[in-house]
Amino acid sequence: MPSSVVRHISYDAATATLRVTYVSGMVYDYLEVPEHVYNEMKAAFSKGTYLNLHIKGNYRFIKVIS
User: Fold this and answer.
1) Would residue 65 be called left, alpha or beta, if left means φ above 0 and alpha means ψ between -120 and 50 degrees?
2) 62 burial class (0-12, 13-18, 19+ CB within 10 angstroms)?
3) Which residue, of 29, 41, 53, 54, has the greatest Cβ tally within 10 A?
4) pTM of the complete model beyond 0.90
């Protein structure tokens, strides 16, 4: 199901970085995210809900593109 918040997610296992591209065009890298968290988000019915409940506030982040 397409998300109204998240356009795309990707994961770099070498650096444990989750990249989230929002529908707005903003891009954030969430740091030190375990691969199982990425896999859970990928499988989640609602990417936005998963992001809010399990990623935001739990991992450091860097704004890549605004």
Assistant:
1) beta
2) exposed
3) 41
4) yes
